[in-house]
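User: I'm new to structure prediction. If I give you an amino acid sequence, what do you actually give back? Let's try with this one:
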Amino acid sequence: MFRNLTCIECPTGCTVTVTVEGGKAVLIEGYGCRRGHDYVLAEVEQPERILTTTVPSGNLSVRMVPVRTARPIPKALIDDALREIRKLRVSQPVTVGDIVLSDVLGSGVDVIVTRDVS
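Assistant: Good question. You get back a string of structure tokens that encode the predicted 3D arrangement of the chain. For your 118 residues, that looks like this:
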């Protein structure tokens, strides 16, 4: 199977063609640099994303507190991670970078606040 991807690692935006067999990239063509090769390889074999969402607050200056994962998590974990995050409620003042959920789903990645809320 062939997949065409646009590399997002630099402003060039190379169009990369990947031959995929059994979930593995067996041939990568069209990348302009090593970063592009590595990006496409990861995107095909182990895609990851930073998850951004909001959490309800209790009696604070805003109704919803913006949060995100501190690092990308496997794309396959996003739905389950959202279910865990939806259980949260922020009831005390927080600052950017405060952890509201440690080690989400055993991924080793924390969920952090992205806005000061008092």
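You can read the tokens as a compact description of the fold. Here is one thing that stands out. The chain has a mean pLDDT of 95.
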